[in-house]
Amino acid sequence: MKKKGEKRKNSRQIPQTSIEDTKTEDPPIPATKD
């Protein structure tokens, strides 16, 4: 769960990396960010 929170933070700073990590880890992550 900690990783998910970190990824969300990274997505804000590095959307490119977050998108790739999110797609491989959990695609619904972007929906939660909204």
Structure description:
With 34 residues, the protein is mostly helical. The protein is built from three helices and no strands. It is 82% helix and 0% strand. Residues 1-34 are annotated as: Disordered. Residues 1-11 have a biased composition (Basic residues).
Coarse structural class: mainly alpha
- Characterize the biggest β-sheet: none
Q: Provide the helix percentage.
A: over 70%
Radius of gyration: 8 Å
Q: What letter string, H or E per element, gives the SSE order?
A: HHH
Strand content: under 5%
Q: Termini distance?
A: 18 Å
Question: How large is the count of helical segments?
Answer: 3
Unreliable residue stretches:
none
Overall spatial form: extended
Give the tally of β-strands: 0
Mean pLDDT: 58
Biased composition (Basic residues): 1-11
Region (Disordered): 1-34
Biased composition (Basic and acidic residues): 20-34
